[in-house]
Write a structure and sequence with these properties.
CATH superfamily of the largest domain: Medium-chain alcohol dehydrogenases, catalytic domain
Strand content: 25-35%
Structural class: alpha/beta
Catalytic activity: xylitol + NAD(+) = D-xylulose + NADH + H(+)
Radius of gyration: 20 Å
Family: Belongs to the zinc-containing alcohol dehydrogenase family.
Distance between the termini: 24 Å
InterPro entries: ADH-like_C, ADH-like_N, ADH_Zn_CS, ER, GroES-like_sf, NAD(P)-bd_dom_sf, SDH-like
Number of strands: 22
Pfam families: ADH_N, ADH_zinc_N
Pathway: Carbohydrate degradation; L-arabinose degradation via L-arabinitol; D-xylulose 5-phosphate from L-arabinose (fungal route): step 4/5
Oligomer: single chain
């Protein structure tokens, strides 16, 4: 993604192998083109994918073969700009969109750059991530933060952009009812985006009562804790207890859990919309008859696309969504490994790692 100078003053948090991380002084990245900017990374959140690479060394066909810097949920400060950069200057604070598409393929040219096969995405093998002192991005992937937004909030624009994309994929309309499965960070943010987009009722579903209590205090109108019964039975109770009439207009799975996927299909009304946002097993049993006979719209969702990051910034700066409530705590760069341990153990919603001094 970047070329490098010979100056090794770029302290980085590096995954060397399964459950094997270390700190390394790496070369300071330099600008690869006239539209690039170099950023000092101020805060980085920990994503489930970072934890998965750390624990398993792979996600699907993405396999860590060489040491890789982790992290992709970041905000930083501009320290150098290319000669053609017009929208940013040294000292600007930005949210960092961590995937650089090729901009030339069919998917890019039709506006779906998140589906680019040549995407260089931070902390996805073989590309290094943002848990470092410095990082380089094109200027159009850096979103200037209004004065009202902190750098800590800026680091949460990445998961919020994911939630924006998922919710947009659903086609959710004003006054729709929406059921969201999974009350982790992305599920919680989907609740908030659905409300911001005009949903009249948002129901959060999870097997963890503590998460559900937080969801109710954050953005959900009501919650549902599934029982160990069939998906149709859980769906019927969910509909009944939350006054969803003939079923929900929109269902979003942000868990990746097979029972959630199945219940989501059954909870929808005829003609409803389903979006798969969570990643689970490669293959599951899917209630295809219900999807067909109810003529559901079924879509996947992958990262974020055109306009999603800016929408995320606008939703927070306008006061429609509060991401500060999701920040469990901040830790120093030196405590990054412990932060990963805590996230794996479910001891936090979002932990932010400060950039190296």
């Amino acid at each position: 993604m970047t070329t490098e100078t010979s100056t090794k003053e770029n302290n980085s948090f590096v995954l060397r192998g399964i459950k094997d991380v270390t700190f390394e002084e790496r070369p300071v990245p330099k600008l690869a083109g006239p539209h690039d900017v170099r950023l000092q990374v101020n805060y980085t959140g920990i994503c489930g994918s970072d934890v998965h690479y750390w624990q398993h060394g792979r996600i699907g066909h993405f396999v860590v073969k060489d040491p890789m810097v982790l992290g992709h949920e970041s905000a930083g400060t501009v320290v150098e700009v290319g000669e053609s950069v017009k929208s940013l200057k040294k000292g600007d604070r930005v949210a960092m969109e961590p995937g650089v598409p090729c901009r030339r393929c069919v998917r890019c040219k039709e506006g779906k750059y998140n589906l680019c096969f040549e995407m260089s995405f931070a902390a996805t093998p073989p590309y290094d991530g943002t848990l470092a002192k410095y990082y380089v991005l094109p200027e159009d992937l850096c979103y200037k933060l209004p004065e009202s937004l902190s750098l800590e909030e800026g680091a949460l624009m990445e998961p919020l952009a994911v939630a924006v994309h998922i919710t947009k994929q659903s086609g959710l309309k004003q006054s729709d009812t929406c059921v969201i499965f999974g009350a982790g960070p992305v599920g919680l943010l989907c609740c908030a985006v659905a409300k911001a987009f005009g949903a009249k009722k948002v129901v959060a579903v999870d097997i963890n009562r503590e998460r559900l209590d937080f969801a109710k205090s954050y953005a959900a109108d009501s919650t549902f804790e599934p029982s160990k019964v069939s998906a149709p039975e859980n769906a019927q109770r969910l509909i009944s207890e939350n006054a969803l009439g003939v079923g929900a207009d929109v269902a979003i799975d942000a868990s990746g859990a097979e029972p959630s996927v199945q219940t989501a299909v059954h909870v929808l009304r005829a003609g409803g919309s389903y979006v798969q946002g969570g990643m689970g097993r490669d293959e599951i049993t899917f209630p295809i008859m219900a999807a067909c006979t109810k003529e559901l719209t079924v879509k996947g969702s992958f990262r974020y696309g055109s306009g999603d990051y800016q929408t995320a910034v606008d939703l927070v700066s306008s006061g429609k969504i509060d991401v500060k409530k999701l920040i469990s705590r901040k830790v120093s760069f030196e405590d990054a490994e412990q932060a990963f341990e805590d996230v794996k153990a479910g001891k936090a919603i979002k932990v932010l790692i400060e950039g190296p001094k």
